[in-house]
Write a structure and sequence with these properties.
α3 packs across α4. It contains 8 helices and 16 strands. With 296 residues, it is α/β, with parallel strands linked by helices. It folds into 2 domains: 2-123 and 265-295, Medium-chain alcohol dehydrogenases, catalytic domain (Quinone Oxidoreductase, Chain A, domain 1, Alpha-Beta Complex); 126-241, 3-Layer(aba) Sandwich (Rossmann fold), CATH 3.40.50. The radius of gyration is 19 Å and the shape is globular. Strands 3, 5, 6, 7, 8, 15 and 16 form a 7-stranded mixed beta sheet that branches. It has a 6-stranded parallel beta sheet with strand order 11-10-9-12-13-14. 48% of the residues are buried. The protein has helices at residues 41-48, 117-120, 124-137, 153-164, 178-183, 210-213, 248-259, 276-285; strands spanning 2-6, 16-19, 29-39, 58-59, 63-71, 82-86, 100-104, 108-110, 144-148, 168-172, 188-190, 199-204, 216-224, 238-241, 267-272, 291-295.
Length: 296
């Protein structure tokens, strides 16, 4: 089968399409025939060597939507099941940017019924990250939350999930994105300066760091989206960052919210698997309002 990998760190041109053996599922694992797989910033990080692994073949891709093709013992799934899953890990030899991928059975959820595989492929990593960030912030209804990067994939899901919880959401994004951010459920919108100490919490999907921390009131909360990269606590503000886990049960809950219309999937562009390097180049250009998706 074909798979997108990196063997030498660098820019988009370092992404290679190689022929590898079709992987076999083990105990409590499933093999998925990939229908679509999102390209995320973490893939660019793996490609550039941010997470290490020099000298190894590193597979790209965390998100997948597709059909169960083979099952291991005690997987709980059946061949033919339409699913989504998160293939966690920055140092795996094969990822979801491939024709087939093997994942642990407990990382899998039934695919949403209301959207196609291309749109479903953008759900696992980004929705799980947004949900985990909100769990860490632990805001009560009526509390105020500012989401940076509110028009992006993680930020957009965070706005929708927080609004559903009754949190008062302010979205920070480019001026041109005001209509989108408000349509996601933001009560307020800002595109520039924010008053210091004006919100109970910040979910920093745009990775503004210490600047965004200043907007949190004394004793509030701040969560970033890069593990371990959050700023240190000041003024009693509780700080942390999201570490996403492959959690099929939680993913199933988020898929249900897609089908209920609570979460909106957004796709910017699609690319053939063989054009993975072009997708990485487009990701590097920025300005996306939805995920890039590879289709084998």
């Amino acid at each position: 089968m074909r798979a997108a990998v990196v063997t030498t760190f660098g820019g988009p041109d370092s992404v290679e399409i190689v022929e590898v053996a079709v992987p076999e599922p083990g105990v409590r694992q499933v093999r998925i025939r990939v229908a679509a797989a999102a390209v995320n910033p973490v893939d660019a990080g793996v490609r550039a060597g941010v997470f290490g692994g020099a000298g190894k073949r590193l597979g790209l891709g965390w998100d997948v939507a597709g059909v169960v093709d083979a099952v291991g013992v005690a997987s709980g799934w059946n061949a033919g099941d339409e699913v989504v899953a998160l293939a966690y890990g920055t140092a795996k030899s094969l990822g979801t940017h491939a024709e087939y991928v093997v994942v642990d059975a407990d990382a899998v959820a039934a695919a949403p019924r209301s959207v196609d595989a291309v749109h479903a492929a953008g759900v696992p990593l980004n929705a799980l990250a947004a949900a985990r960030a909100l769990e860490m912030l632990a805001l009560e209804p009526g509390r105020s939350l500012l989401v940076t990067g509110a028009a992006g994939a993680v930020g957009g899901y965070a706005v929708q999930l927080a609004a559903r919880l009754g949190v008062s959401v302010t979205g920070l994004a480019r001026e041109a994105d005001e209509g989108l951010v408000r349509s996601l459920g933001a009560d307020r919108f800002v595109s520039g300066a924010v008053a210091a100490g004006s919100v109970d919490a910040v979910l920093d999907a745009a990775i503004l760091g210490a600047d965004a921390l200043e907007w949190v009131r004394d004793g509030g909360a701040f969560v970033g989206v890069i593990p371990g990269a959050h700023p240190a606590s000041v003024r009693g503000v509780r700080t942390g960052s999201v570490e996403v886990a492959a959690d099929g049960s939680r993913l199933a809950e988020l898929v249900a919210l897609v089908d209920e219309g609570v979460l909106t999937t957004r796709v910017a562009e699609t690319y053939a698997l063989g054009d993975a390097a072009k997708a990485h180049a487009r990701l590097a250009e920025g300005g996306l309002r939805g995920r890039l998706v590879l289709v084998p």
